[in-house]
Amino acid sequence: MEHLPNFHRVLVLQGGGSLGAYEAGAYQAMYEMVTKQDKERGFKGKPFLDIVAGTSIGAINSAVLVSYVIENNTWEGSAERLTEFWEYLSKESSMDHIPGFTHWWDFLHNNVNRNIALGEAARRYYTAKEFSIIGVPTVFSPLTPQLDTKFFDPQNIWYRFDCGPLKRSLERFAKFPIATTFDEKASLTQPRLILVSVDVAEGEPVIFDSYEKEDGSRKSEYGKYIVHDGKDVGFTHIIRYDGGITSDQVIASASVPINFGYTILEVESYNKATSNYEKNIRYFWDGGIMSNTPLTQVVRLHREYWLKRKGIKHTVPRLNIGIVNVHPRKQDTIPWDHDGVVNRNNDITFSDRTEREQQALLLVSDFVDLARELIKIAKDHGIKDDVINMVLDRKTMNHGLALKPRKYSDILVGQYEIGKVVRANRKNDEYTISNKIFDFSSKTINQLRESGYNNALNLSDLEYEGELF
C-alpha cells in the first residue's frame, strides 16, 4: 500500500459565467502564496493541489488547469495558461468605442439624478445586453428566437444560445479525455478532477470524476439504489467513461438552463421490465442549479476513493480546502431598483452554502469519533467482541434511496477530517449589474482577474491566518 499523505489540498470553483475570470486571478494569487509557503516549510515534491472541483464555468476552469498539469507534468505555468484562456474568451465591446459614453452617464448621475447609473455601470449593463443579443464568438452564439406556439404570447419569446463555441474554446486549451489516478511513485501526483451536472428528468446531481472506482472503472452512478430479490443490482443510472472525462461532460456541467440547450449524453439505465441495464439518451443541465459550490460531493468521493480503492480503514487523508466564491452571499446595501433586486436575487441563489455543509460534515465526523470511543470503553470494561460486532453488523435503518445498503460498521471506517477551509469571496462594486455573467468584454474580464488576484492576497478577504492551506 502507498504511503498515506498527511493531507490533500482541494480547490473548489463556483459557476458564474464571465465571473470565472475572477477565479483565474484568485488562482494565480493562491498558487504564488502556496508554492512560496511550501518552500518555506520544506515541502519538497508536494503538489500544489490534489483535487480541483468545479461547477459550470468553475468546471471549465478546473478542466483547463488539470489538463495543463497532466500535459506538462508541473503546476508551474498553470496560472498563465488559465489567464491565456480568459484572454481568448474576452471580446471588445462596442460600448468601449462610443466617445464619451461613460462620461455622459457620469454627468447625468452627478448633475441630473443620483438614481441614474454611473458610467461604468452603464457600460457593463449595455455590454452584457449587447453580448446577450449578438453573442460572444468564443463563448456562445445566438440561435433564432423561438416564438411561443403554446400560448401564442408575443412577449413570451425564447432567446436561446449555442454553447458550441465554448466547447471549441475549451478543447483548444484542454486535452480530452481527462483520466487521472493517485500514484505516489510518479514524479508528480496527478490532480483529481471533479465536476457536477444535473440530470434534467431525474432531478439528480451527477458527479464526473477523473479517478477510478473500486473496480478500476471510471463511471458516474446516480438515482435510486436498486436491490432485487435480495441481491444488489446497482444505481438506476450509470454513465461510463473509462477513458476519462470528456469535453461533453464538462459542457454538461455548464449548460445554463433556458439560455443554453440540454447537453445530451449516453446513459445506461436499469429497466425493471427486463431486469437489465439498457443504453438510452438523457439530458443534462448546469450543475449550479443544485450544487454551485460542490464541497459535499468532494468530501464524499474523497472518502470513497481512499476507503474502497486504497483500503484505508481508519482515517483518510485530511482535506485542506480553498473555495473561490464569485456570487457574494453578503452585501452591505439593499437594492431598490429592478436590476439591483434581480442581481441580489441571483447572487443569493447561487451563493456559497458550504459553511452549513461543513458544519454537518464535521458533526458526522465527530459522531464517528464518539462511536469509536464508546466501543473502546465498552471493550475496556469487559464487553465481548461478539456482542459489539453483533451491533456493528446490523443494517442501518436509512438506506436504499441514493445509498447502498450498509451496516453500522460501514459508517465507522474511512473517517474523513476537514482541516482548513479558506474562502476567496468576490464582492460586488458600485457598478454591478444583474446580467454580469454575460459581460465578457476585455475591460471587465481584466477587472475581474485583477480583483480576484488582489482579493486573494488580502488576508481579511480570504478569512485565514498565517499559512494558506
Task: Determine Rg (CA atoms, Å).
Answer: 24 Å
Proportion in β-strands: 15-25%
Based on Cα principal axes, name the global outline: globular
Class based on secondary structure composition and strand pairing: alpha/beta
Number of helices: 15
Instruction: Quote the distance from N terminus to C terminus.
Output: 26 Å
Helix content: 25-40%
Order of helices and strands: EHEHHHHEEHEEEEHEEHHEHHHHEHH
Mean pLDDT: 93
Largest sheet at a glance?
10 strands, mixed
Name the poorly predicted regions: 460-465
Q: How many DSSP-defined strands?
A: 12
In short:
By secondary structure, the chain is of the alpha/beta class. Helices cover 39% and strands 18% of the residues.
Folded structure, characterized:
There is one protein chain. This protein is an alpha/beta fold and 469 residues long. Helix content is 39%, strand content 18%. The chain contains 15 helices and twelve strands. The strands form two sheets. Strands 1, 2, 5, 6, 7, 8, 9, 10, 11 and 12 form a ten-stranded mixed beta sheet that branches. A two-stranded antiparallel sheet has the order 3-4. Strand 7 (219-228) and strand 8 form a beta hairpin. It is globular and about 85 Å long. Residues 460-465 have low confidence and may be disordered.
Key attributes of the depicted protein:
alpha/beta, 12 strands, ten-stranded mixed beta sheet, single chain, two-stranded antiparallel ribbon, 469 residues
